[in-house]
UniProtKB/TrEMBL annotation:
Keywords carried by this UniProt record: Hydrolase, Protease, Serine protease, Signal
Protein's recorded name: S8/S53 family peptidase
Entry-linked InterPro entries: Peptidase_S8/S53_dom, Peptidase_S8/S53_dom_sf, Peptidase_S8_Ser-AS
Active site: 85 (charge relay system), 106 (charge relay system), 256 (charge relay system)
Signal in keyword set: yes
Family assignment from sequence similarity: Belongs to the peptidase S8 family.
Domain Peptidase S8/S53: 125-299
PROSITE patterns, A to Z: PROKAR_LIPOPROTEIN (PS51257), SUBTILASE (PS51892), SUBTILASE_SER (PS00138)
Signal peptide: 1-26
Source species: Mesorhizobium neociceri
Taxonomic lineage of the native organism: Bacteria, Pseudomonadati, Pseudomonadota, Alphaproteobacteria, Hyphomicrobiales
């Protein structure tokens, strides 16, 4: 493959070692979706799933906030989510998001997660080996990146165009933090995630880390041991969110699974605040994050905190 070290950022468990994908990318999970959207609340799933559906239509790995948003009529309608990921490499992983155990590519898992959180959104998939510039849709755009790029951005028109979209505020760009247990932007074995570094300070970009579960004030969560963290850079801290990755319920690990949850949240927020810009949607998610659901909260670990969809949706308008 022409892209050096391209790895999805979601499945841990030795994924970097076993991925035979393009050489310039790296990752940590699991990968994406396409096609124009689903609508409404997902239908009931097979009882054979180890992750049964709840009465409100949500699934075992989801925050209760998602069911509340759906009940209020906010499912991501009028918003487009584009998952850029691995959709062609024959490397599949086992998991169960509520449809029963399946074997899917990294991108397929990421896209399924985002589409299940925001079932009303228009879903698009884009293979990260397609090097042409990103195509933005006419409505509010959310772009999910659950992979790392270890080579100069100048060599990759697709990633350059995505960074440009984050710089200009043309799309909410959610980027998985990575699974090396280090601060974002830290070199490891001579390599650095150039895609992450290029998104630092971009006005509509969000970094997403993984918690060991969805936190509550009574059962606080902590950062998953594999998850990269915000670190000492105030700019990174200011654009860093966390969400629970309930791997014990789904079999899926890594920040690759955290990022599409926030992509779905962004779509849901955009479906309520229909005139909001991508930067306003991004800021609303960051500004309403919770810290009371986290063990020993500090911004160097958790950035702004745990994403709270209910708080993000609470006001009548945003600015």
């Amino acid at each position: 493959m022409s892209k050096a070290q391209l790895f999805p950022v979601g499945f841990v468990l030795g994924l970097v070692a076993c991925l035979s994908a393009a050489p310039g990318f790296a990752g940590d999970l699991d990968a994406g979706v396409s096609g124009k959207g689903t609508t409404g609340t997902p239908a009931a799933e097979s009882s054979s799933s180890r992750c049964p559906q709840n009465a409100d239509g949500t699934f075992c790995w989801m925050s209760p906030d998602i069911g509340e948003a759906w009940a209020a009529g906010y499912t991501g309608s009028g918003v487009s989510i584009t998952v850029v990921d691995d959709f062609t490499i024959e490397n599949r992983f086992e998991g169960d998001l509520g449809h029963g155990t399946q074997m899917q590519r990294h991108g397929e898992w990421v896209a399924e997660s985002a589409g299940m959180v925001a079932p009303g959104a228009n879903m698009f998939k884009r293979d990260y080996l397609d090097n042409s510039s990103i195509r933005l849709q006419d409505d509010l755009n959310v772009i999910n990146l659950s992979y790392e790029l270890m080579e100069p951005l100048s060599q990759y028109p697709l990633e350059r165009s995505i960074v440009d979209a984050a710089r200009s505020g043309a799309a909410v760009v959610t980027k998985s933090a990575g699974n090396d247990g280090i601060a974002i932007g830290t070199p490891i074995q001579g390599n650095i995630d150039v895609l992450a570094v290029s998104l630092i300070g971009m006005p509509s970009a969000i970094f997403v880390g993984a918690l060991d579960h969805n936190g509550t004030p009574g059962r606080k969560a902590e950062l998953a041991t594999y998850s990269n963290y915000a670190g000492s850079d105030p700019e990174v801290q200011n654009q860093f969110l966390t969400v629970g990755v309930e791997s014990d319920k789904t079999g899926l690990h890594g920040t690759s699974q955290a990022a599409p949850v926030v992509s779905g949240y962004a779509a849901i927020v955009g479906s309520k605040f229909t005139s909001a810009t991508p930067t306003q949607v991004r800021n609303q998610l960051l500004d309403t994050a919770r810290t009371d659901t986290l063990v020993n909260y500090n911004p160097a670990t958790y950035g702004r905190g745990e994403a709270s969809l209910s708080r993000a949706l609470a006001p009548a308008s945003i600015r």
